[in-house]
Model the fold of this input.
Amino acid sequence: DRPCLPIFQPKGKNADIFYDIPTNYFTDRYRPIKDQITVRSPGHTLIKVTEISAPDITVAASLDKRANFSLFNSQHRECAGNLINVFMNARTTEDFKSVCVYAQPRVNPYMFIYALTVAYLHRSDTKNLPLPSHACQFPELYVDGTVLAEARSVGTVLPDGFRNPIEIPRDLTASDLDPEHRLAYFREDIGINLHHWHWHVIYPTSGPRNIVNKDRRGELFYYMHQQIIARYNYERLSNSLPRVGRFGDFEDPIPEGYFPKLDTVLASRVWPSRQENAKLSNLARESDGVFVTIDDMKRWKDRIYEAIQRGSVNNGTQLVPLTEETGIDVIGNIIESSILSVNRGFYGDFHNQGHNMISFIHDPDNRYLETFGVMGENTTAMRDPVFYKWHSSINEMFDTYKQTLTPYTVDQLGFSGVQVTNLEVVTDGVNGSNNLQTFWERDQFDLSRGLDFVPRGGVFASFVHLQHSPFTFRITVQNTGNARVGTVRIFLAPKRDERGRDFRFREQRLMFVELDRFTTNLRAGSNTISRKSVDSSLTVPFEQTFRNLDSIDLSSTSSADNFVFCGCGWPQHMLLPKGTPEGLLSDLFVMITDNQQDRVDNTSMESTTGNCDSAFSFCGVRDRRYPDKKAMGFPFDRTARTGVVTLNQFLTPNMKVQDIRIRFSERTTDGRTLQAAQNKSKQANQT
Ligand code: CUO
Done:
C-alpha cells in the first residue's frame, strides 16, 4: 500500500484509482453533493479509507489556501509543522492514509505536498517508497507561465498522440543585454532547483526535533551552499564573468534585477520581480507575520562575527567554546538558523530573514498586497542572481570561522606509504586524455500531472540543459605498506582567475568543487583505480531527476518501473561546469587519505540500498551519520600552512594535480528522455 499516492499522483497510470472517502471527511461545502461529485469510470479501483477521528489541523488550516507557501516564513513553518506532526504521529499506515485524505482539501496545497513529502521521507512505513517529482506536481514553480498556458490549451484541445512538445525557450527571463543572463542555464536549471528543494525538505530548519536534528546538519548547510557558490563562480569564469561580488551593506542598492516570469497558479498572478538597484527596507507585514528590521540584521551579524572571532557562542547562560570537531555545525545552525541554534533569541534568524528581506523588497509593508519574490522560496530562490550574492556573504561568515582554525599540518594531510603517481581522465568519444567535454542536450518532461484539467496522456515540455560526455578517472597509486583502505577525494578548480592570472592557493581553495568521494582497497604495491563519472558521490542519475514518461504504477513494487524522486543529490547533468570553446584550463586534484581515520561506524560511503540512494556528499546518508569523519570540504576548508602559496606547494605525496581542459561545444544533442519518448512513439506507431 502506498498511502496518499493517488493524491500525490492523480494522473497517468493512477487516473482510475479513487479513494472511497468517508462522508464526514468531505468539507461542509461538498458533503451534501458527495454522490454527484464522486467520480466513477469503467474499471476504476476504489480504495477504502477508514474513518478515524478527525486530527487537529487548526494551525495548518489557518494558512490561506491560495497563499504562496514559504519555509522562510515562521508562521508558514508553524502551520507546516502542525501538519507534519499529524502525519508523523499517525500510528498505522491506514491511519496515515486517513489523515492525509482528511487534510488535503482543508489546507494550502503547497504546504500539504511539502508536509506530506517530509512525512513520506521520514516515516518508517513509507520512506523507501517512490515519490513523484515536485516539478511534475507544481510545474509553475519550475517553468515559464506561458509554457503552462500553452500546455493547458494543447492538453485540452488536442488528443494524446497529436501533441507536440512545448518548447521552453532558452532566453526565457532576460536577453543578453543583461550579462547575468549568461548564467540563466545554471540558475534556472530544473534539476538544480529540484535538488535545492529536496535538500531543504530533508534538512528542514524546524518541525519535529527528531527530523531536524540530523548528524552535522549545520555543517552540511554550510558545505552544500559553499559548493553551490564555488560551482556558480566556476560557471561565471566559463562565461567571461568575474566571480560573484559581495552582498554589501544592507543599505546598498542591489544592482541585479530579476524578472522571473513564473505564474503563481493559486492566486492567478505572476511572481513579483525586482528592478535593478532596488533597496532593502524594514519589513512589517502584518498579514504574513513577517517583521524584521535592517538593524536586527546588523545586530545578528555583529553577534555572529563576535562569536566567531572569540571562538565561543553565548547560549543564554554561558559562553560555550566552538570546538574543531563541532564548531562549524554550531555556527551553521546559528546562521541559517534552525531550531538547533544555541540561542535564536540572541543570534536571530539571519540567513532566513535575509531571504525574506530580499523577497519582499518590492512591498515591504504589504501596501500593494503583493506576495514574495522568488528569493522567498527554496524551490525558486536559486533562479535569482542575488541568491548567489546573499549566499556568498553567508559563506564569507563561515570562511571567517574556518580561518580561525589551525591549518592542517603535513602529517594531518599525508597518508604514510601511499603515493599517487598518476592521475588522468578519459572522456567517452574524445581522443587523448585530460579533456572533458560539455554541450547542450535537449530533453523533455511531462507537465500534465501538474495541470488540473487536461485529459489523460502526457503534455511534454521540451527544454535544453547543459550536459557532458561521461568520463572515467584513472588513478595510479603506489602503496609501500600493507593492504589497506583509502578514501579517494576528487576536486576540480579553474586554474586562472577572471584576469587570466594563475590562482594562488588562498583563493583557489574556495574555487574547488567536489567531483567525487569514495573508498578504495589498496593492495601492497601498485594499484590502478578506475572510477566513472556516473558513480559520483555528489550526483543522482539523470533518470532520477527527469524520468517521468510514466507515472508511478501502484501495482508495481519496483522503483525501476516508476518515476521516482527518491534520492537527494546534485543532478548528474550539472556535474561539470560549462567550460569554454577553447577549453577552460583547470586543476584536477585527487587525494587519498587513510580510511581508518575517516570511517564512521555503522555507515558507509558506498551505496547500500540499490537505485534510490541519496548522493552522500551533499545529502548525507538517510538515518545514518555522515559517512566521513573529516571536515566537509577537506582539505580545502582551511587556509594552508605557512609557506604554501600555490597549489603545488600544498601537495603531499598522497595528492596529485593534473592540468585538464573543459571544452564546451555549441552542438545540441537529444537527451535520454527525448530518445525514450521517440522510441516509445515509434513502438506505438508500429503496433
Ligand atoms: Cu538553500 Cu538560502 O538556503 O537557500
About this structure: The longest strand covers residues 655-670. The pocket of CU2-O2 cluster is lined by residues 196, 200, 225, 351, 355, 378, 381, 391 (CB under 6 Å). Residues 403 and 639 are 6 Å apart (CA to CA).
